[in-house]
Each structure stands twice: as structure tokens, then as C-alpha cells.
Design brief:
alpha/beta, ten-stranded mixed beta sheet, 8 helices
């Protein structure tokens, strides 16, 4: 699989500018994140509205055994969600995100998409990806990924969720992907169209292409509603992020809607969001 350089010097500069507007340094921001992770890292945690149960799990796939993080409210049955991490892999930051989603009433499976190469975490932090050593470590792991493998994994992850007592199998599953895995989320919905009904791709890379397994070609095979959120400078130097090319690439019947700056808590974080409703 080709490495998508979506988290580059442009991203780093934008992050520094955003932190400066909030009178924070990278060191201060990292310290705040570490505190939040420590507060949340217990086997059973109580959120603002719900008590959560979490565990490290192993999911059998056609390609091996994937390690993952599973968290859900302590009582009841809830819609399941597959959470694909960004290029840095499954780590504490995505466990915190999974807990926040679980507190809203979901059973969340945050997966290690590098399981073919190593158990999570493969990097201690996202900052490590920006170092030559971190990129050298990840390159062979990224090379071990494939589009077909992602779809096999998604099928296994969906089956795992459906086997859990905490998951309501009468409700559709959701899937999220970030940066590198934005396209993974779309492929997941194409792999399990009868189960996955909601897709979120956040500044996803390599969304547009002519190949049959390109996310833009697979959207028509899904039965989901999709939110494709594209950051302001995502395709400033790489056309396949899709801000300009994705609408042209959709050659199947669908309804679409563009929303400018939809994220009110962080104005300007995303330049626009592209909502797609497949038939």
C-alpha cells in the first residue's frame, strides 16, 4: 500500500498556529492529553453520563489475530462502531476517543490495523511518526496492508461486534476512519453493506481513484450514509484527498450536500464536509 504523506510539514505548521491562538505550546498540549489519558485508563471507568466497561480483546481474521480495544456502557445493548486509528496506529489517544464515543451510547471497537506486523501500540505518540525513525518503523507495516485485507478485516470486526452481548444487532453498525484510514472506513461499509449504515471519514487520504477498489468507486456499493470531512489544506498539494475531485468521481445515483465549516466547537478545523446518502 502506498504511504500517504497527509500529516506533513503543512499539518505541523497549522497545528502550531492553532495552539498559539489558544496560548498553548506543544509541550503544554501534550501534558494535558497525558493527564486525560491517565484519568481514563482504568478497567472500568465512569464517564459524565454512563459507566463504561472496557477490555483488550483479540479478533480472529482470515489473516491472523488482531488486537483491539473494546469499550461500551456497562448496561444495555448499543449500536456497534468500528474505529480505525490514523497512521500512527492504536494508542492511548484513540482509546480516549473510543471512551468518549461509548459514553454517548455506543459499543466501540478501536482496532490495531497493523496487527499483521506488531501488537499495539506501534508508536508511543503521533509525534514519533514525524521522525525519521518513526517513519522507518512504520513503512514495512504500511507495506503489509492491502485494500482486500482491509475489507477482510472489516468483515471480521463487524462479526465480532455482532457476537457481543453489549451490541444491539437490530441496529446498524457505524465506522470511523482518520487520515490514512478514512478510505478504510468506506471500504468497510462496502465489505459489509447490510450491516454498516453510517460512515465517517475525517481528512481521509486517497479517497479518489479510477481503480475498482478506490473508495470513490466503492461508495456506490455501500448502503450507508457517509460524512466525508475534508480539512482546509488537505488537498493543497495532493489531489486525491477529494475536495475538488470527489464530486466529479461520484458517477452513481446518490443525494449529496455540502456544509461549509460544520464544526462549531473548533471553527475552521474542517473547511467543509461532504455528506453522501446512498440509495
Amino acid at each position: 500500500m502506498e504511504i500517504a504523506e497527509m500529516c506533513d510539514e503543512f499539518t505541523s505548521k497549522a497545528e502550531d498556529e492553532a495552539l498559539a491562538r489558544g496560548s498553548l505550546s506543544r509541550r503544554q498540549f501534550a501534558a494535558m492529553g497525558a493527564v486525560a489519558a491517565l484519568v481514563a485508563c482504568s478497567g472500568e471507568s465512569k464517564g459524565a453520563a454512563r459507566k463504561l466497561v472496557e477490555s483488550a480483546v483479540r479478533v480472529e481474521t482470515p489473516d491472523g489475530t488482531a488486537d483491539a480495544f473494546f469499550v461500551h456502557p456497562a448496561r444495555g445493548r448499543f449500536p456497534g462502531v468500528i474505529l480505525w486509528p490514523d497512521i500512527g496506529g492504536l494508542r492511548d489517544a484513540f482509546k480516549v476517543m473510543a471512551r468518549r464515543l461509548a459514553e454517548a451510547g455506543y459499543a466501540v471497537l478501536a482496532v490495531n490495523h497493523y496487527y499483521r506486523s506488531a501488537p499495539a501500540p506501534v508508536l508511543s505518540s503521533f509525534a514519533e511518526w514525524r521522525t525519521p525513525e518513526g517513519q522507518a518503523k512504520l513503512r514495512p507495516m504500511i507495506a503489509a496492508l492491502s485494500n482486500d485485507g482491509t475489507m477482510r478485516d472489516a468483515t471480521a470486526f463487524a462479526a465480532f461486534l455482532d457476537s457481543q452481548p453489549s451490541v444491539d444487532r437490530h441496529r446498524k453498525l457505524g465506522v470511523q476512519g482518520y487520515c490514512q484510514t478514512g478510505g478504510f472506513a468506506i471500504r468497510s461499509a462496502a465489505a459489509v453493506p447490510d450491516r454498516i449504515g453510517a460512515v465517517g471519514s475525517f481528512h481521509g487520504a486517497q479517497l479518489v481513484g479510477a481503480a475498482p477498489d478506490s473508495p470513490s468507486q466503492l461508495i456506490g456499493r455501500t448502503k450507508a450514509s457517509l460524512l466525508i470531512a475534508i480539512a482546509r489544506n488537505d488537498d493543497a498539494h495532493a489531489w486525491w484527498f477529494g475536495k475538488r475531485s470527489l464530486p466529479v468521481a461520484l458517477s452513481f445515483p446518490c443525494r449529496t450536500r455540502w456544509n461549509a465549516n460544520p464544526w462549531q466547537p473548533i471553527p475552521g478545523d474542517f473547511d467543509l464536509a461532504f455528506r453522501i446518502f446512498t440509495y
